Automatic annotation (TrEMBL):
Family note: Belongs to the tannase family.
One Pfam family hit: Tannase
The protein, known as: Putative feruloyl esterase B-1
Record key words, sorted: Calcium, Disulfide bond, Hydrolase, Metal-binding, Serine esterase, Signal
InterPro entries xrefs: AB_hydrolase_fold, Tannase/feruloyl_esterase
Signal peptide residues on this chain, from the entry's feature table: 1-28
Organism: Pseudomonas reidholzensis
Keyword hit for Metal-binding: yes
EC number: 3.1.1.73
Enzyme class: hydrolase
Molecular function terms, GO-annotated: feruloyl esterase activity; metal ion binding
Amino acid sequence: MTPFDLPRTSRTLLALSCSLPLISLANADEAAQCLALTSADPSVRFVEQRFIPAGERPQANPGRAALTGEALSKLAMPGHCLIIGAIGERTGQGGTPYATHFELRLPSPWNGRFLFQGGGGMDGVLGQALGAIPFRGATAQPALNRGYAVVSTDSGHTGRNSSDAQFGLDQQARLDYAYAAIGTVTAQAKRLIGDYYGQQPDHSVFMGCSNGGRSALMAAQRFPTAFDGVIAGNPGLRLSRAAVAQAWDTRALNAAAPRAQDGRPILAQALTQADQTLIANRVLAQCDALDGAKDGSIDAMSQCHFDPSVLQCKAGQADQCLSAAKVTALRSVFEGARDSRGNALYSDWPWDAGIASNGWRAWKLGSSTSGEPDARNATLTPGSLGYYFMTPANPDLKLDAVEFDEAAQATAQTAAINDAVATQMSSFIGGGGKLIVIQGNSDPVFSANDLRRYWDRLSADNGGAAKLGGWAKLFIVPGMTHCGDGPGLDDIDPLTALEQWQTESKAPAQLLARGTAFPGRSRPLCPYPQEAHYRGQGDAEQAESFVCR
């Protein structure tokens, strides 16, 4: 029996047999023990192996970014053993070298827990295994500093950056990115943890945002006995169709954009920043007070139904309005990608104040003043669609050549291995698994409405909302864009909530959120479908003045 397969009950008994909750390598030369650690698996090669003394700070090298947390420069790490390794080195399609790289950090003392840190984008970058809370505003302590053994991976390929999708030409690399690397790395990490500490983890958690959030859901869906805790932030659960939607949005906005001298559309000028602010203000004027407090945040998200035609310029009007072309583009984006028969290719999008944010602009519009776009949708999507999501691959794909009538079929093969949409999760539930999902309502990358529909299916297939709430919670953050930012409260600590759920059987009735977008404010994040409403009395800047209903 491998550590990967060791039953949770056995792991728990092992943990309970220890006299101390934190397992220290006292009375041993930690550096020597770290250097003595080996893998009995011949497919594993250690690339780097050293003991890092307490107080050292993470590397600032952007090529080894954490990907799941930004405020790390002031972090002083605990003493720990660092192992960087390569699993299954091989030569793949076109003579390209492949391996599943991992970074494992083994702290002293150890709290008996293991955390798998998700990546981002198309992966291909080995993030520093710190276990930072995967939201940009988060100030809570990273998992490593809490005593977790933490692992990260590049998901089976090395890219120029986390946008490089050329690995999609290789069959095994596709499988590794989709899900297989999770199992491969988890098995090796748990073997090394067992060898180093003399016992297996009593709790195993997967935490990530964006593609890391999708990977987190994959951990629960495809490796249900390997993890008993999962935190998925802004998950790209239907990553394949979201890529199609990115092509759709770019084309729709280009139709409203002015032309450069070379005739190409200037995507960034399809909507100006003033236009975005105008839209956000009108949405707020209609929806802000629906939760009982007019405060710049739309907490009653389900009640906000906005029609952009109210912004269309009347005859003779030139200010504080939008042209017919801009209104048409907005409607096309927010109603969602469709084929010529009217079939939805992805999802519609919720209207929220985050449309005025820098994050929304960075993904949908960019800032380029020429016909060469720099919006992330325009720069990332051709490669991800052409190399990875489409079968057969089309490396020369241009966004204006995407055939939406063929998109569903073209992405079907990758969707079958990549999309995290399973609802049959009986093994995860039966093993005591707990799932926390957090989503920004203003996410311009993955629609919160798509996640809502998935959650409704998950509820229907698992006995209804009450039973689902016994093991899974979805929290939607008003105003928050992709993994943080926007006019939302993105200082959240789901890891502590998960720990309490696992050890005290205390399911989170809400999460407390704060953030720099509204200094001094706190709000409850309510489990979907509940939303926060002002009680009608008390300080509207404080969470206790709101109720979830």
